[in-house]
Design goal:
With about 375 residues, this protein is of the alpha+beta class. It is about 25% helix and about 25% strand. The protein has a five-stranded antiparallel sheet. It is globular. The structure holds calcium ion. Calcium ion binds next to helix 6.
């Protein structure tokens, strides 16, 4: 969806920003009574533990042990050199409405469908010959133009793309969704989901209920969804046992990776961002007093902060003024803003909100990719 200059759209954007703002303050209030659980989850989460204790070298080792990537593969060299690597390949992959050069990217697909993707020279429409492999399903296609038959059963599969010229590789984590139609009594696979609003906000496509969600077992939380983010970082904070379900959209991952790269180029060394809140089920979203159209339930919003030095579960003093407050969130918002006129940013346009600390949380930044510009 394009940004339109018509008054109706501007009103909508302002309203969406207000809704999100109200949602966040409601969420903060609810977080106060949920805070013991949240704190426990922070310390018990395998992903958080890994981030807290594992050095980049150990993370690289875990990747090899986990069989996610091989050490000789460019896709696995991220964070092994002691300096920040953006994790971008020398070619592009284009599918549906996404164009990406990230060496890792998770893509949600509905079971039993056909996923078409192209392998392109960066910044051009020229197709490149590639060697493509998939761990499940069937791949067909010719030079740079491929089709993958998505398996009928929900789960994860990997598509690996290798090009000879330029020599590089890419790994797509294909997340075969569990259709939302299989939810009964507001539950999906025993996980409490609640109900998505049946009517899209103002009829907008981005506010239609998702067609399916990603089923996540305990062993899935460390799957890499992009070069510097893992699946578990986006899980809803609601209580419950596995399997859990979530949605994380490629555009959000692309935006977070752009922001992370921008932060590191600013001289702030951090291997990832702390995702305070990623996906929220409609049930959890409602329970914490949020408005029903929050971008978090659609899988393209994240509340984040930099937590690298020290790693203490709080925002760092990223603007180096000796205090940790809303101005640190505003500093990060400024970095997002600085990319606004870059061509790559056009499909990543969305909301940016900054929040001050309260008794439940420190300052943080909200970003989403709703398709229209919203600021608060
Ligand atoms: Ca500061």
């Amino acid at each position: 969806m394009k940004i339109a200059a018509r008054g109706g759209t501007r009103r909508l954007v302002r309203r969406a920003a207000r809704d999100e703002s109200r949602a966040q303050s409601g969420g903060a209030a609810a977080a106060r009574w949920l805070s013991p659980v949240t704190r426990a989850q922070r310390w018990l989460s395998p992903v958080t533990r890994a981030q807290r204790w594992l050095s980049p070298v150990v993370i690289a080792g875990a990747l090899v042990v986990g069989g996610v990537a091989r050490s000789a593969d460019p896709a696995s060299v991220v964070a092994t050199q002691g300096r920040f690597e953006e994790g971008r390949a020398a070619f592009e992959m284009r599918c549906d409405q996404t164009t990406s050069e990230l060496r890792r990217l998770a893509i949600p697909v509905m079971p039993g469908t056909t996923f078409r993707f192209e392998v392109l020279q960066r910044g051009s429409r020229r197709r490149l010959d590639a060697r493509v492999e998939a761990t499940a399903g069937t791949l067909t296609g010719t030079v740079g133009d491929y089709r993958w038959s998505v398996p009928a059963d929900p789960g994860f599969a990997e598509i690996r793309i290798r090009t000879a010229s330029p020599p590089d590789s890419m790994s797509l984590l294909m997340m075969v969704l569990t259709p939302l139609t299989s939810a009964t009594d507001e539950h999906l696979g025993g996980y409490r989901l609640g109900t998505y609003p049946a009517q899209a906000l103002r009829g907008l496509e981005v506010y239609r209920p998702p067609r399916g969600l990603v089923r996540v077992e305990a062993q899935d939380v460390e799957r890499w969804v992009s070069p510097h983010f893992q699946l578990g970082q986006f899980l809803c904070k609601q209580e419950g046992s596995y399997p859990k379900f979530l949605l994380v959209r490629p555009r959000l991952l692309q935006k977070l990776e752009r922001l992370l790269g921008r932060i590191n180029r600013e001289g702030i060394s951090t291997p990832t961002l702390h995702v305070m809140s990623g996906y929220r089920t409609p049930f959890y979203n409602h329970a914490i007093g949020n408005v029903k159209y929050s971008r978090h339930i659609y899988g393209d919003a994240a509340d984040v902060f930099v937590d690298a030095s020290p790693q203490d579960g709080m925002m760092d003093d990223v603007n180096h003024d000796g205090t940790i407050d809303k101005r640190d969130a505003q500093f990060l918002a400024g970095l997002v803003e600085s990319m606004f006129h870059e061509s790559f940013f056009t499909p990543l346009v969305g909301g940016v909100g900054t929040y001050a600390a309260n008794e439940a949380h420190g300052p943080f930044l909200h970003v989403d990719t709703r398709g229209t510009r919203a600021r608060w």
